[in-house]
Design a protein that fits this description.
mainly alpha, coiled coil, KIF17 protein
């Protein structure tokens, strides 16, 4: 009776060790795969979980609706990214225009100061160290702490005749 029961419960192949081993391997593989999917789902966020799961659909229309939703979601992301890119480009363009304006203004100021120095240099006494501007430029030192130039003090060199 027990032998008949084992054959009925387990079927004809109840005693087949190869079949049992095959079932055990399949079950082990299925468990491993399930654990991998669970781990992947825990690591992913809501958006990427759509890509990880294999969806089973009852009809083609249901599959089309699901894929259309996914497509709309990705299109929204794309539009948001494009908008952000345009914003960054316009911000960069405004900064570039501002920098170019500053450079042009500084160049004009530099030209003004250079012309003023050229006019004033002829009025400086010849016995003053400021009569030679190139020498003053070489002797000047930039001070990082105060953010200004340290230029030599004006000195008048008097020559005494014997």
């Amino acid at each position: 009776l027990q032998m008949l029961e084992r054959q009925v419960v387990g079927g004809e192949q109840a005693e087949n060790k190869d079949l049992k081993e095959k079932h055990r391997r399949r079950k082990k593989y299925a468990d491993e795969r399930r654990m991998q999917l669970v781990a992947a789902l825990q690591q992913s966020n809501e958006d990427s979980s759509d890509w990880l799961l294999l969806n089973v659909y009852d009809s083609i229309q249901e599959e089309v609706r699901a894929k259309n939703k996914l497509l709309e979601k990705m299109q929204k992301k794309l539009r948001a990214a494009e908008t952000e890119i345009k914003d960054l480009q316009s911000e960069f363009e405004l900064e570039k225009i501002d920098y170019l304006g500053t450079i042009r203004r500084l160049e004009r100021d530099l030209l003004l100061f250079q012309q003023l120095l050229d006019q004033v240099q002829s009025l400086v006494r010849r016995d003053c160290n400021y009569s030679n501007l190139e020498k003053i430029k070489r002797q000047s030192v930039w001070d990082d702490e105060t953010s200004c130039w340290k230029i030599p003090e004006p000195v008048i060199q008097k020559t005494h005749l014997p």
